[in-house]
Amino acid sequence: MENNINTPVGNFTKLLEFFHIIEKLKKTKRTGWVIKNIENPESISDHMHRMSILALLSNDDNLDKNKCVKMTVVHDLAEGIVGDITPFEGITKQEKNRREMEAMQYICKELLEDSLQSREIFSLWQEYENGETMEAKFVKDLDKFEMILQAFEYEKSDKKDLTEFFENTRGKFNHPLVKSWVEELYLQRQNMNSNK
C-alpha cells in the first residue's frame, strides 16, 4: 500500500536533523538557572511549554490566541542550535540576534526546505523578535513572567535569593492580564519572605 502522507519536507534526513534540534531544547538547561546553581534547572523546552499554557489562559479578545500559543512554541527554537545566550556571557544583543537569525534560516530554509510550515515558523519567530504586534508584546510579557514565576519556585525549592530576576523585570510588563499575575506573584513572594 502506498503512503500518501503529505509531509512538509521531502527529505526525511533533514527532518530528522530538525527533530534532533528540538531534542536539544528538551535537554539544554536554561543558562540563568545553571549560573545560579539551581539543583534541577528547567530546560528551554520546559520554559516554552509553560509559556504555551499561559498563552492559552488569555482572555483578551483583541489577541489572536492561537497565534500567541504558536509563537510561544517557536520563540526560542534557535536556541536548539545556538544555546541559551544570556547577558552574563558578554555576547552583544546584536551578535545574539545574528546567531539566532542564522540558526532560524538554517532550520527553516535548509532543514525544512522553505516549506509552507517553515515559513509560518519563521514568520512567527520574526514577529516575536520584532516585538511590535499585540501578540508579540503579550508573548514577551509571558516570557518574562514565566521566568520570574520559575524564580519564585526556585526560591522556595532551593532556598535561594533570586531577587535580581524580579528587579530586572520590574516595571517591564504591559499586558493587563500578565500585570495582574505579576502583582499576585509579588504578593505571594512578599508573604513567603515575611514568613521566613
Automatic annotation (TrEMBL):
Would the keyword Transcription turn up in this protein's UniProt record? no
The record's section on Gene3D superfamilies has: Hypothetical protein af1432
Pfam short name (any one) = HD_3
| Reactions mediated catalytically | a 2'-deoxyribonucleoside 5'-phosphate + H2O = a 2'-deoxyribonucleoside + phosphate
Show the coiled coil region(s).
none
Q: What is its EC number?
A: 3.1.3.89
Names of required cofactors: Mg(2+); Co(2+); Mn(2+)
Q: Which UniProt keywords apply?
A: Hydrolase, Magnesium, Metal-binding
The biological processes this protein is annotated with in GO are: deoxyribonucleoside monophosphate catabolic process
Cellular component aspect of the GO annotation: cytoplasm
Q: What class of enzyme is it?
A: hydrolase
* All residue ranges annotated as the HD domain in the record: 22-178
Known SUPFAM superfamilies for this protein?
HD-domain/PDEase-like
The protein's role, per its UniProt record? Catalyzes the dephosphorylation of the nucleoside 5'-monophosphates deoxyadenosine monophosphate (dAMP), deoxycytidine monophosphate (dCMP), deoxyguanosine monophosphate (dGMP) and deoxythymidine monophosphate (dTMP).
Q: How is the quaternary structure described?
A: Homodimer.
Q: Indicate the family of this protein.
A: Belongs to the HDDC2 family.
Cross-referenced PANTHER family: 5'-DEOXYNUCLEOTIDASE HDDC2
Name of the protein: 5'-deoxynucleotidase
Q: Which organism is it from?
A: Funneliformis caledonium
